[in-house]
Amino acid sequence: MQYSRVEKVAEAELPTRWGSFRILGFEGHLAPDATPGPMGNTVDEAVVLIYGDVSNGSPIVRVHSQCLTGDVFHSLRCDCRQQLELALDTITAHGSGILLYEAQEGRGIGLMAKLRAYELQDAGRDTIQANVELGYRADHRDFTLPAEILNQLGIRSIRLITNNPEKVQAMESHGIQVAERISAEVAAELTSQKYLEVKRDKMGHMIGSLL
Question: Which residues are annotated as a binding site for Zn(2+)?
């Protein structure tokens, strides 16, 4: 993805049950010749939570894609909420870190398309088969915006919480050194077992033991 500009549009205090963060809002404006993704956005948004002093060394970073069903409604079809809470636990336990929360619902296809994919999954497709049947790629996410934000924040080296090798590659391709990958693996549920198997077996996510 190419942006003509990436700008911070807001910054405020955010008290949470994990502690007090700074919350920053960023907008990435697509370049005139850039092709919008499946959701048709010409302006992409991301929220950044900063905890403690991240100016020295390689801060712990989580790049998390929005998941309304998991993050808000506590769905057990996926591991998104558990990974989000794991990241916040890890950051605050360490005393500092950054969480970048991207508006890329349903691996970038949008909420309504994601729910249509759920219907197909209920009929027996896996997550990739459902997306492809609807005319999408397995994963439409792009990690340019979080990398650009980290560059704006002066962060050049990170310890990245992820199981996804594509996130590591995306950060490094934009000049962000991944000094360490920290596992984002969480305990599987019976309802998320197949979802996690597909991430491991078809998408190359670094997941160890499942149920």
Answer: 67, 78, 80
Q: Is residue 170 assigned to a domain?
A: yes
Residue type at position 21: F
Enzyme catalytic residues: 139, 141
- Range(s) of the domain holding residue 60: 8-112+144-202
Annotated binding residues for GTP, written as ranges, equal 62-66, 83, 105-107, 127, 162, 167
In a domain, 183, yes or no: yes
DSSP sequence for 21-64 = EEEEEEEEEEPTTPPP-TT--SEEEEEEEEES--SSS--EEEEE
In 3D space, the residue among 202, 42, 65 whose CA is nearest the CA of residue 137 turns out to be 202
CA distance 191 to 189: 5
Binding-site residue numbers are 62-67, 78, 80, 83, 105-107, 127, 162, 167
Tell me: the pLDDT tens digits for 24-62? 999 999 998 888 888 888 999 999 999 999 998 999 999
The count of domains in the chain is 1
| Inter-residue contact 113 to 135 (CB < 8 Å) | no
For residue range 85-140, list pLDDT tens digits in order: 999 999 999 999 999 999 999 999 999 999 999 999 999 999 999 999 999 999 99
pTM: 0.94
Take residue 169 and report the two structure tokens written for it: 């590659």
